[in-house]
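Issue 218. Parser rejects a valid record. Input:
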Amino acid sequence: MAGKAYQLVITRSARKDLLGLPPKIGEQVEETIDRLLSRLREGQRAQDMRRVEGRPDTYRVDTGEYRILFAIDEAEALMTVFRIRHRKDAYRNL
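Output the parser choked on:
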């Protein structure tokens, strides 16, 4: 089943978060983002995607002790990763 040609945007702050991670964790996060994007392009949602309460079109996925927070814009076929942090800090000032 073919889906939309989703594009990936990683915000400056999320890129900074990613570069600050230990190398092994960073690789896991990149693999998770690639998997999520592939699933969206196939017209499916990843089973481990969870909606973030109080934020429309905002989701999270767990990668070990880290959380990847992202928004999906269906109309623009856009996945925007805006935060990659340890679970204790992921939701602060959201």
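Fixed in the parser; the record now loads. The domain at 7-86 is CATH 3.30.2310.20 (YaeB-like fold).
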